[in-house]
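Newbie here. two chains, one complex. Structure please?
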Amino acid sequence: MENHYMAHELIEKIKDKEIKIEEIIQEYLDIIKETDGSVNSFTHLHEKDALKKAKRLDDQINKGKHIGKLSGLPIGIKGCICIKDSPTTCCSRILEGFNPPYNATVADRLLEKEDAICIGRTNMDEFAMGGSTETSCYGPTRNPWDLERVAGGSSGGSGSCIATGQSAFGLGSDTGGSIRSPASYCGVVGLKPTYGRVSRYGLISYANSLEQIGPMAKCVKDCALLLQIIAGHDELDSTTVKLDVDDYWSHLNDSIENKVIAIPKEFFGEGVDNTVKEKVDKSISILEGLGAKIKEVSFPHLEYTIPTYYLIAMSEASSNLARFDGLRHGEMIDELKGDVFDVFSRTRGERFGMEVRRRIMLGSYALSAGYYDMFYIKALKVRTLIINDFKKVFKTCDAIACPTMPTTAFKLGELLDDPLQMYLMDVLTCPANLAGLPALSMPCGFDNKGLPIGFQLIGNYFDEKTILNIGFLLEQELNIYTKFPSLKGVR
Amino acid sequence: MSEHEDVIIGLEIHIQLTALKTKLFCSCSSDYRGKAPNTHTCPICLGLPGSLPVTNEKAIKFATRLALALKCTINERFYFFRKNYYYPDLPKGFQISQYNRAGGKAFADRGVIEIEVDGNIKEIQLNRIHLEEDPARIVHEGSITTSPHALIDYNRSGTTLIEVVSEPDMRSPAEAREYLKQLMSIVQYTEICDPNLEGAFRVDANISIKGHDRSEVKNINSIKEVENALSYEIKRQKLAIKRGAILIQETRHWDGDKTISLRTKEFEADYRYFPEQDLVPFETDEQFVDKIRIKLPEMPKERKERYQRDYLLNEFDAGILVLDKQIADFFEEGIKLEKSFRPEEYKLYCNWLMNQVSRWLNENNTNIANTKLKPEQIVDIVKALKENVISSKIANSFIEEMMKGTSIQEIMKKSGKKVISDENKLESLCKEVIKENPKIAADYKKNPKAIQALKGKVMGKTRGQADPKKTEELLKILLK
């Protein structure tokens, strides 16, 4: 099956005219049709447009014309990233019918400039609020390794579409772990870039000071390829920095001899599953074998990250989601009774899901007069302490290694009624968001149920190069990245 | 203690940067007046999901000009904050504004405006000035009460406002009026805003009686209306206090006759201000400020001092003349045209502008730039007056024609009006008048002022064409 090649291998085959883009797209579409009824990675498919573009690109190749670097390979793009005329719903009823009149900057770079083909829009937790892709208005995404389990989230659809072989690439967004959680649970590679590395223009905000768009793929090399394209300053996003972007591929094979890898002991504490610890430890040993120096470090403020993260995220969300009132986008409620505030209240009451409403209410509360200092300002102060913890580590170390998630994928519905327990699942991922650091998750083994375990590498600011380098070497040693799920229980 | 010692007034003025071509956070045209609705919009000013603001650097430059003119302290690093509230004219559900609490910093702090009321000079301190985006415009078909629905025009959404917040330093509506006149003048001199454009200059007035809670009267559109609204509020609040009522903090609306309560404090929105993290903090270093400082034009206060010094205008005349920059520019242009002019002519020129021309402009609700009046015309009028070719009465009757741009020579030719200075002719006219008014003539012996009445009769007979100076001299001789 062509889809069991890595994306960079397929690009070579296309270049050598061994295979047509149209055939590749068709094959991916066939797999989607065969599997997506069970997995539910996609909320909207762009079958026609995808095939049309594939044909056009094949024509261009035949005529000897240049095509973009991504050579017509399919990409599943998360439902919160605006693509012109493509349903961009954040998997919320309030945005049903919203087809943006413009492209996100990443969509421009990937689709228009480098000729990736958006094969469909991927499922997510409503407005990226969740860690399991269960709060989507289109129903949950299931984990391709065990359909009774969650795919992680909120970019669950982008994770599962790669794991299932439904797409070559995926694009997610990561506010508190939303790329790395599904990467970990689905056994794929996902990277959250440094805050300010990738343009957020066109990303529908959940918590704008925390989130970044990032690549998801089957292997580190493919991830690096996507990042190379989307990284860099964008004049439409003032928070992107004017820093040169490293050439990631040219550094993948760099020696990591004498690189210092920090192991923060708190990241291996209570609540982290033993099998997870074991597999992560094994990978650390491999890195040590490759010449890296392992250094145990302390991260004293880890225990405060969850309340800090959620206070900031919910506060920002309460403001970011204020624009959804039914007046300009999405569909208005049928019955317009009362004054404009009644219409606002009813639209928002009926069209936002439970988790979204919970976070808007909590966030509004935290920002209210009289509570602001106690909650929001306090959270910002703790955020500074967490940043300082990281800064201290990076004075002497090149990267941090730890598990991505404390456990492997849990069962669907298992944590849905226990939001606090669900929030705790983010404990190892959200520190990188609070600090704005880049973090990579990659598979490092399986538990005894055959579920993938994620290995997390956190890098210094704008040093995606180093974590990709370490990740790539580890991936070669582990050599499990070519494994695909057998899709137990597919109808 | 004056009757208003216990009155406390503070003003917040929203000034729209009408000279700025694009909006505060996107590159849409900000010239929305008279344009088809919703044609000056983009994903950013429509607040479409996923769009992000980018600060218009020119807006910061404009704000810097005003801050320098008002002698504010410009903060080296400032932030934007979100002011959260729901209203249909606010597409994002929050307004990007600034805040000077909770770690926020306004664009500039402090500053001062000098006013003069009844000969007393007073400094009104400013609290801060900050930048924010203007919401969209809600349009009602017909009137607000009869329209079945409201329409939203997003053309205005995202245009730049500068808010100037004063300390509660004013003690009377007259002080508030003078403060607004001076501020408007300074704004005009900085060339960032044409305050005469509809909605370009909006006032929120905070007013209280010492020891009692304040009310805020929102969105008043002219200086005259501010004065009226404040006078009304003082009366209302004092009466309420006299009756033993307890005033509560509230927001009120001025309808042109009276103020109406909109909401009381407990129903005020909690704006949940917090930092706008889609924008990076803005740095205004010394170099940036200095570049703008160098190019800052002369301000009304300096200009007034110069007019007193160079043209020997008195302080009162100079003060009024410089208030409207266009008028002052016009004055200076004319003065420079005629090298023979001396302080006497300057004064005449200034009087003409401040009286005849300003009155005409007020009556026709326009400004000097919109007329065809040229400085040469005033120069010619001043010369004609000086040389006694026409009387000031005749000159005054020329105003309508002058505003059409007709030259003085042509007006004089057309009207046939010129001064009668032929002594024989004047003498016979004077004799006639004395004969016709024996009572007044007799009165002159006891009351020399009676001569003015006789002069008036002569002027009347000649429809103002008699040379007033010569007529008076002749009358005096004849009545001896």
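Moderator note: Chain A touches chain B through 47 residues (CB under 8 Å). The radius of gyration of chain A is 21 Å. Thread marked as resolved.
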